[in-house]
Amino acid sequence: MREIIGLMACDKNYVISNKGKLPWHCPEEIAFYRNMIKNQIVIMGRKTFNEMPVSFSEEHTVIVFSRIFKSSPQVIFVSSLNELYDLKELPEAKQCFMIGGGETASLFLKNNAIDRFYLSEIDGDYPGDIFFPINLLKHHPCVTYKRESSFTVYCYDNLKERND
């Protein structure tokens, strides 16, 4: 199985969403995020997918975890990690990123399916109803990967090695 990289953002209280939307406006972090996943394979849950613009599917190889399958020539729908692992048609030269949301991140982390995780912490406290499952990462060592005035990116590496 190819390496899967987690990539998400949260605030200082681990909020990742409020009423289905990002609760902050941080163009610098969005630019970082877009640069990381540009033209790559992205895996996300249905709720995250529903918030993406239509053009997102044109720019990436998109895999959506969902029990509700929609018909789309540009999106691959799976309902389990086993179905994901069984996919054969994924481009070999592309990296694979799990980009959210909270349920999908929990699924991948609980099942030891993430090799490395980049977690951006947006400066500030924001209202939210969905939180990042930090309890699944906090016992792993991390390093500061990038520090900007409005956010800091932490990298948790070799997650599979430490979970085995």
Give a description of the structure.
Strand 9 and strand 10 form a beta hairpin. The protein starts with a strand and ends with a helix. The model has no long low-confidence stretch (mean pLDDT 92). The chain is built from six helices and ten strands; from the N terminus they run E-E-H-E-H-H-E-E-H-E-H-E-E-E-E-H. It is an alpha/beta fold and 164 residues long. The protein has a single domain, classed as Dihydrofolate Reductase, subunit A, CATH 3.40.430. The relative contact order is 0.26. The protein has an eight-stranded mixed beta sheet with strand order 5-4-3-6-1-7-10-9. A two-stranded antiparallel sheet has the order 2-8.
| Cα distance spanning the termini | 16 Å
Mean pLDDT: 92
- What is the percent of helical residues? 25-40%
For the CA atoms, what is the radius of gyration? 15 Å
Keyphrases for this structure?
single chain, 164 residues, alpha/beta, Dihydrofolate Reductase, subunit A, eight-stranded mixed beta sheet, two-stranded antiparallel ribbon, 6 helices, 26% helix
SSE diagram, text form:
Layout: E1 4-11, E2 15-17, H1 27-37, E3 41-45, H2 46-51, H3 55-59, E4 61-65, E5 75-78, H4 81-86, E6 96-98, H5 102-110, E7 116-122, E8 130-131, E9 143-147, E10 151-156, H6 159-163
Provide a brief overview of the structure.
This protein has 164 residues and is an alpha/beta fold. 26% of the residues lie in helices and 29% in strands. It has an 8-stranded mixed β-sheet with strand order 5-4-3-6-1-7-10-9.
